[in-house]
Amino acid sequence: MSRVLIVEDEAHLAKGLQFNLEAEGHSVRLVGDGESALDLLLKKREDFDAVVLDVMLPGKDGFTVAAELRAARHFVPVLMLTARGRPEDVLKGFASGADDYLPKPFELPILLARLQGLLRRREWLREGQAAAAQPASAKQQSHDAEYDVFSFAGRTIDFGKLELRVNGNVIHLTLMEAELLRHLIRNNDRVVSRKSILEEVWGLHEDTDTRAIDNFVVRLRRYIEDDPAQPTHLLTVRGVGYRFIAEPDKG
After folding, report:
1. CATH class of the domain at 3-126
2. Whose CB among 43, 96, 146, 213 lies 3.0–4.6 Å from 63's, allowing a Cys bridge?
3. Is the distance from CB of 186 to CB of 147 less than 8 angstroms?
4. How many angstroms separate the Cα of 78 from the Cα of each of 58, 119, 147, 189?
5. Beta bridge partners of 180
6. Domain spans of the chain?
7. pLDDT tens by residue, 186-244
8. 3-class DSSP assignment, residue 6
């Protein structure tokens, strides 16, 4: 059973989400403001598998809550609910550390699909950490433990720890950032379409605003490129998607 924290000040919406998530087998906790959410997650250290976080909250808004969680190195998956998908809200949400977003008003099946995608990826992460702790012989028998750690051009990505190490510095990745990087690395030197990313990283098949992917790529370039404005590792293939190249000089 997954534990989900809903941070939503509209009581009727919060209760409706709680009812439907519990019907899906999740355990749900409700809070109506950002301060209460941070108290549960950072001070009381209550364990949740995902957070559904509204942007418009009394007191600290959703952007601030997400940013404070990430600053405290708390990387619980966050699904942010934004005001009708305003581009400024979406961009600010990703910048603050959200893993995914959903504009209001939303359809319940879409929210459930987005949330399930985050929960599934968190479970994969835990399996990867368990595999990394096994002896080498057991690791060889573990299914698809590829790329637990990946190094290129002086950079090392530890997917189990959600860390990117560059020149002695450690950058902490969100779950979505790590999964997108893993997907691109698996397809090293091949073009990956936005549709493929939506389906294989987000776990979605319905029409979705692909600008969310573009925004993630902008962030990843800041992490892995010497000059994000002139990328050599994470390239845009106009009209299609992206291409990751670990060793550009050999590409």
Report:
1. alpha beta
2. 96
3. yes
4. 18, 10, 24, 30
5. none
6. 3-126, 146-250
7. 999 999 998 888 888 876 665 556 677 888 898 899 999 999 999 999 999 998 999 99
8. strand
